[in-house]
Design a protein that fits this description.
- The protein has 343 residues and is mostly helical.
- 76% of the residues lie in helices and 0% in strands.
- The protein is built from 15 helices and no strands.
- Helix 3 (50-84) crosses helix 13 (269-278) and helix 4 (97-115) runs parallel beside helix 7 (154-177).
């Protein structure tokens, strides 16, 4: 049995790691910048070179903040899915939420070419990307949830989620076939996943979506704890199941949809981070799990982004590939060491 003191120690370690990798992430890239110059620029001072100021404030700082929000938000949405479906294999990618978000963005990017001119450009605004992505995620989650009322077998639910993912991928393939090369290239680069090229306006919109999703998740902590005990027991405790389910769907759709719109589909984080956290925070209390998962996911994506940008070179790898290459072996190692995933 872990004590409150143990949890506090873990949270302190995670906060220190988050701060350390945040500074480390900003200092590394094709141009190496000393850490003291990074800290000076972030806190309003001037770095030794004007180009360093520009790189830090207009490129690397928005990218690092995006990594923190995307990693934490996806990890929390994975935790919400695993509790809602009471299934350790549930997550935004497995249940087709990321595919639904991708479909929304694909319809917008690839379909905008059919309108052209002013209307085509208006359809590709940052807000329209977020709305299309969140809507796609929301509709897929609603469809999966509707099926779960008829099918109680958890493995069947996961397979149905994968089938929804296949259907959305097929629709995207058809749209791609009829699109011109320019729009197709734009969509393919988006689908690789990237945390760079974020303007401060985009960061602001993403912050707004992330805060809404996290607020609902934190507010639903006690309801999530009750859901773990089973639907009938939760009802006997006075929990309004439909209202709670709707709130969790909204929080997950806003988090997964908003993040996917700006960073592209990112695999592994939503599925694996809750399991990695449970290996150390041996509790099912969501008042502790949600902030722990949030911090752990943020640290993990900062590490993945630091590797993806291949320090001291001009190349950057797709973040989606790095999260899978690093994360999958970690989960396998945890499974082999612990013999089962805690839930």
């Amino acid at each position: 049995m872990q004590t409150t003191k143990t949890y506090k120690a873990y949270f302190v370690v995670l906060l220190v790691l988050l701060l350390a990798f945040f500074i480390f992430n900003i200092s590394l890239g094709s141009v190496a910048i000393p850490i003291d110059e990074v800290i000076k620029a972030i806190f309003g001072g001037n770095a030794a070179k004007n180009t360093w100021n520009f790189i830090i404030l207009d490129y690397r700082l928005p990218k690092a903040l995006t990594a923190i929000m995307a990693g934490g938000g996806l990890a929390v949405s994975g935790l919400l899915m695993q509790t809602l479906f009471r299934n350790p294999l549930a997550g935004p990618f497995v249940l087709g939420l990321s595919s639904g978000a991708s479909l929304g963005v694909a319809i917008l990017i690839l379909g905008a070419g059919a309108f052209g001119g002013f209307l085509g450009n208006a359809l590709l605004s940052e807000w329209s990307l977020v709305i299309a992505s969140a809507l796609g995620s929301f509709l897929v989650l609603l469809a999966v949830l509707a099926v779960t009322f008829r099918v109680k077998d958890t493995m069947a639910i996961l397979i149905i989620g994968l089938m929804f993912g296949s259907v959305t991928a097929a629709v995207v393939a058809v749209l791609s076939y009829f699109s011109n090369a320019e729009k197709l290239q734009q969509y393919i680069f988006w689908s690789f996943g990237s945390l760079g090229n974020m303007s401060w306006e985009s960061v602001l919109i993403l912050s707004f979506c992330t805060l809404i999703g996290l607020f609902i998740a934190f507010a639903s902590s006690k309801s999530l704890n009750a859901l773990l005990l089973g639907e009938n027991y939760a009802k006997s405790m006075g929990l309004r199941i439909k209202r709670t389910t709707f709130l969790i769907i909204i929080a997950t759709s806003v988090l997964a949809g908003g993040i996917t719109a700006f960073a592209g589909p990112i695999a592994f984080v939503g599925l694996a981070v809750p399991h990695m956290v449970r290996q150390y925070f041996k509790t099912s209390n969501h008042l502790i799990l949600i902030p722990a998962v949030l911090l752990f996911g943020s640290v993990l994506l900062l590490i993945c982004d630091t590797i993806a940008q291949l320090p001291f070179s001009q190349y950057t790898l797709p973040i989606n590939a790095i999260t899978s290459l690093i994360g999958a072996p970690v989960v396998i190692w945890l499974l082999v060491r612990k013999r089962k995933l805690l839930f």
